[in-house]
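Dear U.,

Please find below the material for section 3 of the report. The protein was modelled together with guanosine-5'-triphosphate; I have listed the sequence and SMILES used, followed by the predicted complex structure.
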Amino acid sequence: MNNFVSAKVYALRLEVESLLSDLSLLSNDIRQPEMAATVLELKKRVHEPFMFVVVGEVKAGKSSFINALLQVEKDICAVSPAPMTDTIQQLLYGEQEEIVSIGPYLKRITQPVEILKEIAIVDTPGTNTIVEHHQEITESFIPASDLIIFVFEAKNPYRESAWKFFQFIHNEWRRKVIFILQQKDLMSAEDLKINYEGLISHANKQGIENPIVFSVSAAYEKEEKYDLSGFSAVRDFIKAHITGGKGPMLKIKNNISTADNILDKIELGLTDRRTQFNIDTKFRKEVDETLQHQSERSENQAKILTENMIAAYERTTRKYEEELSSGLSFPGMLKRSFSALFGNKENSKEWIQGLAGRMDSDLKQDLKNRLNDSAGDLADSIQQMAKLIDAKIQNSSTILKTNYEIFQEIADKRVAVYRELQEAFSAFLQSGDGFKDNQLLNTPSGSSPGIVTGSGLAIVGIIITAITQVSWLDITGGVLTGVGLLFAGVTVSLQRGKVLSKFREEIDLGKIKMDKELSNRLTIYIQRIKEKILENFIPFDKMLEQEGKDLNSLENRVSTIRERMNELENRII
Ligand SMILES: Nc1nc2c(ncn2[C@@H]2O[C@H](COP(=O)(O)OP(=O)(O)OP(=O)(O)O)[C@@H](O)[C@H]2O)c(=O)[nH]1
Ligand SMILES: [Mg+2]
């Protein structure tokens, strides 16, 4: 436990720590290692004092500023005309001077300097330098800072690179900043005034209405020209705003605000993901609806086709029923008996077979004509079903950008799954394999000539023709066999009524069979196509399901953290 804080501050720090723990777990789970590292860094420093981070371009006079501010005998931070500071140097209070290397870019220096009991000061490598990594090292330390001291060389506070870095601090991390014009001893009072005002106007342009600016000279301070150095104003500011017990609470507020900032980023990314998820879910629902609607239309077409075929069957069979009826009447029988006597071989049995033969070929021709009229419509309707789904797939919208800062992986994965769906569906439409159904084509008689050839949607037409032909060929055969058997060894004249009613019975049976076979086969075919279309969506559906779960869980976690954060914030105002 830190010796310099109250029990209340300590308790609050523990709460902040636990909040940051949850936030770092969340950042890890959404695979944002940098974010997680930032949060952990913040968490690690919860018990440290309020932290000043001194930044600025190379050679602005940052290290000299710190040395002068601390009023120590010898320089704590190394100063040189050449780029000097190459690590982050964190100055903390300690009974003895101690320098510990924490990592390749971080040193921890303790000094028995009174002010360090309340504030930690961090010296950073200058930005905008040719030395590699310096900018990155300094940038990485910004989120953990409580107050940024932005040091400019008094001679030139106008560099674009410096103001760009300022934007990073201010916009990206919402850090509070005070500005220092250092090395003012090198300038005339008039020139200094111009640059002082210039700096204020630049800060205004960046959205800082009343920037806090101090002009100082580390050289004068060192020469003990205290009334000229400008450092007493800086110290007064620190005393008024940070030291004297205010620092710890300010730091807690800063920590919460940084966590808030990070949570905002996650939330923003989640909002985009949710929007995309809703679009995808709607798209998927529309696909189902379109498919349902179109398959109903196709089933309707199948019904019309079946009805047409049955009408044709009825008309043709009625014609032959009439012929049979009149042929079996007494005059008809008489006529045939005379013919038989005069050498005509035809007897009743042969006559009836001839009638059956004509009926068979007539029926085939008639059904074929009917089929040609309606099968095309049904094939069109099924093709339309597939085409409409394809149009939907090709036109769905993507809002989750793959170059998005957060959740890039999710965006990339979605794009890949979506592209896979587009490609799989195009292939499905083109190959025609999805429209073949060997089980349905395998008829009792085993004939499905030429069906396996052909590709793409066009094959639907061929298949419909095959399914329908197969059915009625089979049926008329059955009817004729039934009728034919009836005549074997029977004296027709005595059985007229029986023959006619048997004929009628066989015809009706044939009709029922044709109706059942046709509607069954066509309905099954339409359903199979629907299933095959849907098979293409399996990976997409899996992704959608997973994304729905992930989003719910992440949104819950975010809102839980957000609530705790708000509650804590309200308590410490
Ligand atoms: N005349 C004058 N020179 C100064 C003042 N402060 C620093 N200098 C000189 O400016 C040079 C750079 O000073 P540093 O304090 O090392 O600057 P820095 O910003 O820490 O530099 P890096 O760490 O390399 O980015 C050194 O030669 C200092 O002696 C000042 O107030 N007046
Ligand atoms: Mg330095």
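For the text of the report, you could mention the following: The pocket of guanosine-5'-triphosphate (ligand 1) is lined by residues 56, 58-64, 79-81, 83-85, 125-126, 182-183, 185-186, 217-219 (CB under 6 Å).

Regards,
Y.
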